[in-house]
Design goal:
This protein is of the alpha/beta class and 245 residues long. Helices cover 50% and strands 16% of the residues. It contains 8 helices and 7 strands. It has helices at 4-19, 32-43, 55-67, 82-96, 119-143, 163-179, 197-211, 235-244; strands at residues 23-27, 47-52, 71-76, 101-105, 148-152, 184-189, 221-225. A 7-stranded parallel beta sheet has the order 3-2-1-4-5-6-7, sandwiched between helices. The longest helix is centred in the middle third of the chain and has 25 residues, at 119-143. The N and C termini lie far apart (39 Å).
Length: 245
C-alpha cells in the first residue's frame, strides 16, 4: 500500500526547490482552507503573509508556522475593502520588497436558503467573495502585474442559488484576466474545508502547483478540485465539545 505521507513528503521536497524564498500572501489564512494552504506554503520555505480580520487567530497561526520551521507574519486587513488590501500590499512590499503571489479565499458561505437571504446578507457574500476578488486583481494589474493570483472560489457543494452568480462572476474575471495578461486562476474545491489537513491536502497541492514559476504560462483556468469526503463530525467541532466538558 502506498504511504500518502511519504508521497506528500516527496511533493514537498519538489516544491521546496522552486518556492523557497517566494513571498506569498494568503487571505483568510487563520481558518479553513486558508490555514491548510498557508501551512503547506510555509513548509516549502516560502515567506507567508497571513491576512484576515482576527489579529489573535492570525498571530496564533503565524506562531505555529514559525515553531514548525516556517516563516510567517500576520497582517490584519479586511480584503473586501479595497483600501485595506492596498494598505496590506504596501506593507508587504515595505517588509519584503516583493510579493510573488496571492492565494485569495473567496469562499464565504451562508446556511441561509436563497429565498430567505436578506439584502445585507447577500451584500456581505458579494463583498467577501466577488468585490474582494475584483479589487485584488485590479490593484495587482495597476501595481504588480507580474504577481500571480489564485482564487479559491465558492465550494462545489454549496447548495444555495446564491453561489452560482458569485462563482460565475469570479470565473468571468479569471478568464478575461488572461486576455489582460494577468496570471489569474481559480480553484473550486468540491466541498467546504473539513478541518483535517490530510483530507484537504489536494487543494493545497493544486495551489502549490500553480505557484511554481514554471507554471507561469497557466492563466485564465478554472479548475474543479475533487476532495475525499469529510467526516460528518469535523475535528474542530469534536475538540470544542471536549474542551467544553
Amino acid at each position: 500500500m502506498t504511504d500518502p505521507t511519504s508521497s506528500q513528503d516527496r511533493a514537498g521536497a519538489l516544491y521546496r526547490e522552486v518556492l523557497a524564498g517566494q513571498v506569498i500572501a494568503v487571505t483568510g489564512a487563520d481558518m479553513g482552507y486558508g490555514k491548510t494552504v498557508s501551512t503547506a506554503l510555509a513548509k516549502t520555505g516560502a515567506s507567508v503573509v497571513l491576512i484576515g480580520n482576527n489579529s489573535e487567530s492570525l498571530s496564533a497561526q503565524a506562531s505555529a508556522l514559525e515553531r514548525s520551521g516556517g516563516h510567517a507574519i500576520p497582517i490584519k486587513a479586511d480584503v473586501s475593502v479595497p483600501l485595506d488590501w492596498l494598505s496590506a500590499q504596501t506593507r508587504i512590499l515595505e517588509i519584503f520588497g516583493a510579493l510573488h503571489g496571492i492565494v485569495h479565499l473567496a469562499d464565504k458561505r451562508t446556511n441561509v436558503g436563497f429565498t430567505m437571504l436578506s439584502e445585507n446578507e447577500w451584500m456581505e457574500l458579494f463583498n467577501s467573495n466577488v468585490k474582494s476578488s475584483v479589487a485584488i486583481a485590479q490593484i495587482l494589474g495597476r501595481r504588480l502585474p507580474d504577481t500571480w493570483l489564485t482564487i479559491i472560489g465558492p465550494h462545489g457543494d454549496e447548495p444555495g442559488l446564491q453561489a452560482h452568480p458569485q462563482r460565475g462572476a469570479i470565473r468571468g474575471l479569471v478568464e478575461a484576466g488572461a486576455r489582460e495578461d494577468l496570471r489569474l486562476n481559480m480553484l473550486i474545491p468540491s466541498r467546504a474545508s473539513s478541518g483535517d489537513e490530510t483530507l484537504d491536502r489536494p487543494l493545497a497541492d493544486a495551489v502549490l502547483a500553480l505557484a511554481a514559476p514554471r507554471m507561469g504560462h497557466l492563466r485564465g483556468n478554472v479548475m474543479d478540485v475533487p476532495l475525499p469526503a469529510a467526516p460528518k463530525v469535523r475535528l474542530p467541532e469534536v475538540m470544542a465539545a471536549l474542551n467544553a466538558l
